[in-house]
């Protein structure tokens, strides 16, 4: 009966190690996605420490490849030392993922204040004639998120660019996709996106952080199961003499 329990635990453990390799790829993908998306919105969020959870989750993903290898070798070779090492490393990674979740929630809460502080400055320095990186970022966000201005298109009236151009129009990136004849004129507000960008940028950044949080939580649960199975194999191996004799090739009477 004990032997069957050990065999079942070992089978689950080997299966979990294969999942760890898949999880490693997914975690690295999530971390890379955060970096790429952050690059599109970095002018609206200056706190680079927000990337810490993404950096950690990529490191965890890389470590999971090694963990999966150690776990498979230790399980197949019946190595007590290897399984113990496997459990210890899993425990450390589990603690790291808990830290990622906590940091994710902390920085997710800071997003709104950070964006509110940065977006005012970015819009104020907009230059549609000779666009710099910040100006291109504004046009990109307005096209991608289908928004215009900070709270709505009327915010453009308070910018230096609007006052200098004196043509009573907003950037073409404010034009709705279906408005083919739109030239950004405030005389035709129906052609412009009505929603402001600040709320949508905040929502987008918070969604990105939630991807990190959910990924960390999901794989932390898998790691708990891995640690449980490894501990079962270790404990039953040390307590069941029949199992020990089976491994060493002896006979049990």
From TrEMBL:
Q: Which residues cross the membrane?
A: 12-36, 48-71, 83-107, 212-235
Question: What membrane topology is annotated for this entry?
Answer: Multi-pass membrane protein
InterPro entries, from UniProt?
Answer: Tetraspanin/Peripherin, Tetraspanin_animals, Tetraspanin_CS, Tetraspanin_EC2_sf
Q: What is its main location?
A: membrane
tRNA processing as a keyword of this entry, yes or no, is: no
Q: Where in the cell is it found?
A: Membrane
Q: Which UniProt keywords apply?
A: Glycoprotein, Membrane, Transmembrane, Transmembrane helix
User: What is one Pfam family matched by this protein?
Assistant: Tetraspanin
* Entry superkingdom: Eukaryota
Q: Name one GO cellular component term.
A: plasma membrane
Q: What does this protein do?
A: Regulates the proliferation and migration of oligodendrocytes, a process essential for normal myelination and repair.
Q: How does it assemble?
A: Interacts with claudin-11/CLDN11 and integrins.
- Which family, according to UniProt? Belongs to the tetraspanin (TM4SF) family.
Identification of the protein by name: Tetraspanin
**Provenance organism:** Ovis ammon polii
């Amino acid at each position: 009966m004990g032997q069957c329990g050990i065999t079942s635990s070992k089978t689950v453990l080997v299966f979990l190690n294969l999942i760890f390799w898949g999880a490693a790829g997914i975690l690295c993908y999530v971390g890379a996605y955060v970096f790429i998306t952050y690059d599109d919105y970095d002018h609206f969020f200056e706190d680079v420490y927000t990337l810490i959870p993404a950096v950690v989750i990529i490191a965890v993903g890389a470590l999971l490849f090694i963990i999966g290898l150690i776990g498979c070798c230790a399980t197949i070779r019946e190595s007590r030392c290897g399984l113990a090492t496997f459990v210890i490393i899993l425990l450390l990674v589990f603690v790291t993922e808990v830290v990622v979740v906590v940091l994710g929630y902390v920085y997710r809460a800071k997003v709104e204040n950070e964006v509110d502080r940065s977006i005012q400055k970015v819009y104020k320095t907009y230059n549609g004639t000779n666009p710099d990186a910040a100006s291109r970022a504004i046009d990109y966000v307005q096209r991608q998120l289908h928004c215009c201005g900070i709270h709505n298109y009327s915010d453009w009236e308070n910018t230096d660019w609007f006052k200098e151009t004196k043509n009573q129009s907003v950037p073409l990136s404010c034009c709705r996709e279906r408005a083919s004849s739109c030239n950004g004129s405030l005389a035709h507000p129906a052609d412009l996106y009505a929603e402001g960008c600040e709320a949508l940028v905040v929502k987008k950044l918070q969604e990105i952080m939630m991807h990190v949080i959910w990924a960390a939580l999901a794989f932390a649960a898998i790691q708990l199961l891995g640690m449980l199975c490894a501990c079962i194999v270790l404990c039953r191996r040390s307590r069941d003499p029949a199992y020990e004799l089976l491994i060493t090739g002896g006979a049990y009477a």
